[in-house]
Amino acid sequence: MNRDLTTLECALLGLLVEEPRTGYGLRQVFASTPMAHYGDSPGAIYPALRRLEAAGLVTGKSASDGRGTRILRATSKGRTALRRWLKRPIGPSDVVWRGPELLLKFSFMEDLGDAKTTRAFLETYAAANAAEAESATAWLRGDGRDATPHARAAVQHGIDLHKAKAAWARKALSKLSGR
Hints:
The protein is mainly alpha-helical. Helix content is 68%, strand content 6%. The protein has helices at residues 7-18, 23-32, 42-54, 76-87, 94-97, 99-112, 115-141, 149-177; strands at residues 58-62, 70-74. Strands 1-2 form a two-stranded antiparallel sheet. A hairpin with a 7-residue loop joins strand 1 and strand 2. Helix 1 runs parallel beside helix 6 (99-112). The chain is elongated and about 70 Å long. 25% of the residues are buried.
């Protein structure tokens, strides 16, 4: 495959690694879980599934229900692509711009990741969020001193969120290490 997978494609692939499903079954997962923000629109899901199948990451088999239903499953190539996505390092701006995708990655690590990958993810996630909080705090103390009260409050909100995310990652790391 010559392009990176979209977040929706990774979500679909991760769900198909968990268990084989129909397109409708995948839509139901999106509609009935916190994954709803990825959308349960057939106009997004079915084209993404066709792209995954064309790339050899997913394969479909007709069900014996007489309705033309297809059961989809991840191929070994699909599992490899998902592992590669899971292991992609977190960049400094990812915690700002790709928060939901990072947590999606984390949620699939249990099925395909290993303890080393999970540990590296949580350590990097904590460090990147702590660094972002520190950077914004430094801005407030410097150039941000002259910002409006609302702007300062908005930046403080971001600082508090990044600190909370870093604390969550450290707590998750501690919990998972204690298993």
